[in-house]
Specification:
The protein has a single domain, classed as Beta Barrel (Thrombin, subunit H). The chain has 1 helix and 6 strands, in the order αββββββ. A 6-stranded antiparallel beta barrel has the order 1-2-3-6-5-4.
Length: about 110
Amino acid sequence: MSSSKDVIGKLRDLVTIETPSDAVDGIGGQSVSWSTHSQVYADIKAISARELFFAQKLEGNTTHRIRIRYLSTVTVSMRIQFGSRTFQIRGVVHEEQDSRWTDLLCEEGVAS
């Protein structure tokens, strides 16, 4: 396991964690709007990639591990914005030993 200093030095990417809320569009429909939950520094690592042929269209998605300082309020209903990139959170793992880190298992390139 790396020391805390090694991990802290890798938290270079400022990301925005967003939470969804349903919005009524005025004609009876609903849409999802996203609001900022928090902004944190993160270490983003690609851990796998795949391409699928779906509905006669090639779609790619990439799975990432995004490590942040411990944040107990993150859930799988949220997403991560990093510049023009969007990551849907698929899993949340809190480091059990000392509660210093939260690992977010995310997919890029899929609809939320």
